[in-house]
UniProtKB/TrEMBL annotation, chain A:
Keyword vocabulary terms for this entry: Antibiotic resistance, ATP-binding, Nucleotide-binding, Transport
An example Gene Ontology molecular-function term: ATP binding
Compartment list: Cell membrane
Cross-referenced Gene3D superfamilies: P-loop containing nucleotide triphosphate hydrolases
Species, as recorded: Arthrobacter livingstonensis
GO CC terms of this entry: plasma membrane
Domain ABC transporter, first and last residues per copy: 7-235
Taxonomic superkingdom: Bacteria
Protein name: Export ABC transporter ATP-binding protein
Automatic annotation (TrEMBL), chain B:
Membrane-protein topology: Multi-pass membrane protein
Key words, A-Z: Antibiotic resistance, Cell membrane, Membrane, Transmembrane, Transmembrane helix, Transport
Record protein name field: Transport permease protein
Subcellular location: Cell membrane; Membrane
Source organism: Arthrobacter livingstonensis
Transmembrane segments: 27-49, 61-82, 103-131, 137-161, 173-191, 227-249
ABC transmembrane type-2 domain ranges (all copies): 25-252
Length: 273, 254
């Protein structure tokens, strides 16, 4: 697999009623790399991810994941991937540990308990293992969500806007997790609307705009597309993020104690209940 | 894949049963309304109702109350399914190498378990209120079979509601007419006391035949043709609801 493309997408289209969401998307993702699909809201990022993870059928074109066609070999594709969707897919009534055990059992693995304990430790969630998912902060919830996706070691992971709605600390926690994943040889396809996120994480970035890929390259290649850099002297001010993180003083690895939330998406979804 | 249907279904059923154990209020709210209706009808209105039979009114009433219990219980199935869809965990399951139908079956089995508990609670209260039956073990089995078929039929309707709802309220709203249906049946008063068109509707809607069958089984009386009508309704509702539920589920996952 090392030299082969882990994901191969050619001429992918998708329409919902009269709206053409995807109008011929092409890209390849090299095995073991982090690939960012960058685009604004409504660009079609989630549609691409849902087609690749067999949740949606494409209108036309082909998509091959881990050597399997998503249309004709969906079952094999599902064996090869894990999806971390836009909303943290955590069972709120089950505890963190029970969530992990559930997925391990659904993947028909031996020793689901041991797998769960191992992941809880890896994601600094051991202290929160026996608390219900609904009590987790946004960052913890995302980490649990990603931990659930790692069970069974799928070679390819899709992360759909993994940091949307997270506070700055939660975001950094997720970034560290994603980097570790790629370090272990997992292929990561992530979608994001944040430029800095793509810049921080991705080996290769494709810009999805109005249903097509308008640029695809490494960060360096994309930067070359712009006019030659001019040298200006600008006083380096700390960004608000630097200030916030310095004041709060916590680092991501000890995020288990973070109880407060700035996260809006998580709280509103709780309000439904 | 399909070799895992049973294992996956049991894992997922365990999950949603745990949901019920951790929010027993879903069982309590399910049984409160039927018990309140039973108290109201037996102790307030019942004295003025002439059923034309020699048995006590609570005996007459119980079958209909059990159907109301089930109709309000299945609303929670729609609700839980809707929450799974909303929360994204449904997409997680659909993108995993698990037998796809197991996601729905798990909710169906959970509904069955929860409703059996609710029905048992309501029967317990009825016994306290003076419900008595000399029904044999096999008659009880027949009653249980009828109720289980009723739960399954309504649960598959609930699955359609849960899959197609746009809001939480919409997910459970489908159960209101089902809860109301026993009122226009032989559940509370004999249909012969109703004006012509109403009586016609009451006699030809599913609840009457089911109620009459269960009542006859409890009273150790001959069942007559009602049981075949009831079974026909069960089968019809089950087949139609199941077909639509599966179609709506297929539409949802791809």
């Amino acid at each position: 697999m090392s030299t082969q493309a882990a994901i191969r997408v050619k001429g992918l289209t998708k329409s919902f009623k009269d709206v053409d969401v995807l109008r011929g998307v092409d890209f390849d993702v090299e095995a073991g790399s982090i690939f960012a699909l960058l685009g604004s809201n409504g660009a079609g990022k989630t549609t691409v991810v849902n087609i690749l993870s067999t949740l949606l059928k494409a209108g036309a074109g082909t998509a091959v994941v881990n050597g399997f066609d998503v249309a004709t070999q969906a079952a094999h594709v599902r064996e090869s991937i894990s999806l971390t969707g836009q909303f943290a897919a955590v069972d709120e009534i089950l505890t963190g540990r029970e969530n992990l055990v559930l997925v391990a059992r659904l993947r028909h693995l031996k020793n689901p308990g041991a797998i769960a304990d191992d992941l809880l430790a890896r994601f600094a969630l051991t202290d929160a293992a026996n608390r219900r998912g609904s009590t987790y902060s946004g960052g913890m919830r995302r980490r649990l969500d990603i931990a659930m996706s790692l069970i069974g070691n799928p070679p390819i992971i899709f992360l759909d806007e993994p940091t949307t709605g997270l506070d700055p600390e939660g975001r950094i926690e997720v970034w560290q997790t994603v980097k570790q994943l790629a370090g272990h040889g997992t292929t990561v396809l992530l979608t994001t609307q944040y430029l800095d996120e793509a810049e921080q994480l991705a080996d290769r970035i494709a810009i999805l705009h109005k249903g097509t890929i308008i640029q695809n390259g490494t960060l360096a290649q994309l930067k070359q597309l712009l006019p030659v850099a001019t040298v200006e002297y600008v006083e380096k001010q700390p960004s608000l993020e630097d200030v916030f993180l310095a004041l709060v003083g916590d680092t991501a690895t000890t995020g288990t104690t973070a109880e407060y939330r700035i996260d809006s998406s998580v709280t509103t979804r709780k309000d439904i209940r | 894949m399909s070799a895992h249907v049973i294992a996956d279904t049991s894992v997922l059923t365990g999950r949603s049963l745990r949901h019920i154990l951790r929010s027993p209020d879903t069982i309590i709210t399910t049984v409160v309304t039927p018990i309140a209706l039973m108290l109201l009808f037996v102790y307030v209105l019942g004295g003025a109702i002439h059923t034309g039979s020699s048995q006590s009114y609570v005996n007459y009433l119980l079958p209909g109350i059990l159907l109301i219990t089930i109709a309000s219980g299945v609303a929670y199935t729609a609700y839980r399914l809707f929450l799974d869809l909303q929360g994204g965990i449904f997409e997680r399951f659909a993108s995993m190498p698990i037998a796809r139908s197991s996601v729905l079956w798990a909710h169906v089995f959970t509904s069955l378990a929860a409703n059996v508990v609710s029905v048992t609670v309501v029967i317990g209260v009825a016994l306290i209120m003076g419900f008595r039956t000399g029904a044999s073990f096999s008659a009880w089995l027949a009653v249980a079979g009828m109720l289980i078929l009723f739960i399954l039929a309504l649960t598959w309707l609930a699955v359609i509601a849960g899959l197609s709802a746009k809001t939480v309220d919409g997910a459970s709203a489908f159960s209101y007419p089902l809860i109301f249906l026993p009122f226009i049946s032989s559940a509370f008063v004999p249909t012969s006391s109703m004006p012509g068109p109403v009586a016609w509707f009451a006699e030809n809607q599913p609840v009457t035949s089911i109620v009459n069958t269960i009542r006859a089984l409890f009273a150790q009386q001959p069942i007559g043709s009602d049981i075949w009508v009831a079974l026909g309704w069960f089968l019809g509702i089950l087949v139609v609801a199941y077909t639509f539920a599966i179609a709506s589920y297929r539409h949802k996952i791809s």
